[in-house]
Amino acid sequence: MTKKRRSQNWYGKLDKDGFIHRSWMKNQGFPDHAFDGRPIIGICNTWSELTPCNSGLRDLAEAVKRGVWEAGGFPVEFPVMSLGETQMKPTAMLFRNLLAMDVEESIRAYGIDGVVLLGGCDKTTPGQLMGAASVDLPSIVVSSGPMLNGKWKGKDIGSGTDVWKFSEAVRAGDMTLQDFMAAESGMSRSKGVCMTMGTASTMASLVEAMGMSLPTNAALPAVDARRAALAHLTGKRIVEMVDEGLKPSDILTKEAFENAILANAAVGGSTNAVVHLLALAGRVGVDLSLSDFELGSDIPLLVNCMPSGKYLMEDFCYAGGMPVVMQELAKAGHLRAARTVLGGDINAYADGAECYNDDVIKPFADPVKSAAGLRVLRGNLAPNGAIIKPSAATDRLLEHEGEAFVFENIEDMKANIDRDDLPVTPDTILVLKGVGPKGYPGMPEVGNMPIPAKLVREGVRDMIRISDGRMSGTAYGTVILHVSPESQAGGPLALVKTGDRIRVSASNGKLDLLVDEAELEARCAAWTPDKPHYTRGYAKLYIDTVLQAEHGADLDFLVGKDTRLVTRESH
Ligand code: FES
Ligand code: MG
């Protein structure tokens, strides 16, 4: 006898409630046998025209459905909030936890047995995983896939990364505004996510490294027919996963998170992975802390993609994609044993992988850069931690002491950064306050603030920048991020004044404000937080309950999970 499925608590009842659940679903033309006890698979879709990166997900959902039907399941697609990274103000990150709530409550309230998560753009992948992990039904990811390589004037150009470069070139007088505008159309040539190793491709790569998607999911271009085939196979697989009872909590173990941290170093992944992995770990109850990210510090950069390298995701795909990276990690003895959506061990994803271009995916013994993983910095300026991505930084600045120039908030920075009389030199350390989770709110990607115009004109392209915000996964530079506690929460960052000296040592993991204790205490006594920018609605809830960066900026009451079946009926 087979165990009664979860969905049968909706569709298997021979009473008024069962009548209601089935009858209204039948208005879409589903026959009786769709409700005969077969696995009902939710397809959780973040498709939206306002999330261009996810605009291909409608087609992929159809491919998933074919696979579900083929395996004897019943697919039902449902929308959840979509987060368009490039379109939402003040930042899509403000809404990641709202998407996670939407996903969690939708899965819990509906009569489904398993879920296929269709996401791609930066915050959609973590938001969906967090929500799904908190209900813990069998779940599997199909990502949007990257856009085709950007092309302009015969050259490859990368999402985000070349926007930052071109924008600086215009400010330096090295590029005309006309050329700048013309590059716009060449950068985004197809559906899909940023084709640099930005946050979207980073998260897709880590999802694959954690075994939450089928192999090759991360790099196949959005418009490659093989992605639709992968979606079809994923639809087949989720039906089997429901029968096997294979849940996110079986897959997302400490070892899986460690594999993600190692993979993040090897692919030159986004700093944003830190907050997303920490938040996800909080949902599944894995004890992951900022210090665990040290694990990646000595891992070399293997994937030669922007922003840390020169190629793009299409090249990464054709070179062999994530299976090759995992094989390199496995050969070097780094890949941890962990289960995957296929039921077996993650090593199966690496077995038999072949590298077709060893300039795009370098071998462990001859990497793009050695010791490329993120570094965690601590000290009296960041008692609860901060991070830096050395692979995208200037080596000279990784050990540096300099004078701070402080911007009190984003408006201050925008109004003054290009002043001709700004008292800064290439050795100045730029400090930006008020861009943390509570402060902005939502911890936006503004930590890579522009280089002051007067220095850009002198040819300066990098400086140390410190903030409580994040930066885009497509960005680069010697940028110290996620300083915790944030300034709005009264962290020491709030006390920094222009002219103070700051010492940075990436090799020692240190970030110190060289101001004596008595002076800091006096400043602290005189400090008051800014008035919050929002006083109602979700944003108020967010400001009041958001955790600091080292806890993944989740809302405090969302940590953990609730896997109970809802038994009360609506009528
Ligand atoms: Fe959506 Fe980059 S903006 S993936
Ligand atoms: Mg982003």
Automatic annotation (TrEMBL):
Domain Dihydroxy-acid/6-phosphogluconate dehydratase N-terminal: 38-344
Signal peptide coordinates: none
Pfam families: ILV_EDD_C, ILVD_EDD_N
InterPro entries, A to Z: Dihydro-acid_dehy_C (IPR042096), DiOHA_6PGluconate_deHydtase_CS (IPR020558), ILV_EDD_C (IPR056740), ILV_EDD_N (IPR000581), IlvD/EDD_N (IPR037237), Sugar_Degrad_Dehydratases (IPR052352)
Every Dihydroxy-acid/6-phosphogluconate dehydratase C-terminal domain range: 359-553
Xref: SUPFAM superfamilies: IlvD/EDD N-terminal domain-like (SSF143975), LeuD/IlvD-like (SSF52016)
Record keywords: Iron, Iron-sulfur, Lyase, Metal-binding
Keyword Lyase included in the entry's annotation: yes
Protein known as: Dihydroxy-acid dehydratase
Organism: Aliiroseovarius sediminilitoris
Upper taxonomic lineage: Bacteria, Pseudomonadati, Pseudomonadota, Alphaproteobacteria, Rhodobacterales
